[in-house]
Amino acid sequence: MRIRMTEERSDRLRRLMQKTDESTKAGAIDTAMKHYLSDYLNKERVADELSTDMIEELSTAQLPLDRETSVGTGDD
Predict the structure, then answer these.
(1) Pick from 5, 12, 26, 64: CA 20 to 30 A from residue 36's CA?
(2) pLDDT in tens, 38-52
(3) Model's pTM, two decimal places?
(4) Could you tell me the CA-to-CA distances from 17 to 12, 20, 30, 67 in Å, in that order?
(5) By CB neighbour count within 10 A (0-12 exposed, 13-18 middle, 19+ buried), where does 28 fall?
């Protein structure tokens, strides 16, 4: 797979390699993908236990987090 590298993308990849302590682009990308998927699953798992403010704080454009809230009257 080929990825067209813009200056912005090259800079992000360079910073990612530094932050992940990876010596290859593939290693840095792999680490980032694993982190993204793990982070998403962890947030999804606890979303119902978090306040609306916390949900908004943890949500990003790249990793949106939301939850469903239902309100009942106590009558079945």
Answers:
(1) 5
(2) 988 988 888 888 888
(3) 0.69
(4) 9, 5, 11, 33
(5) buried
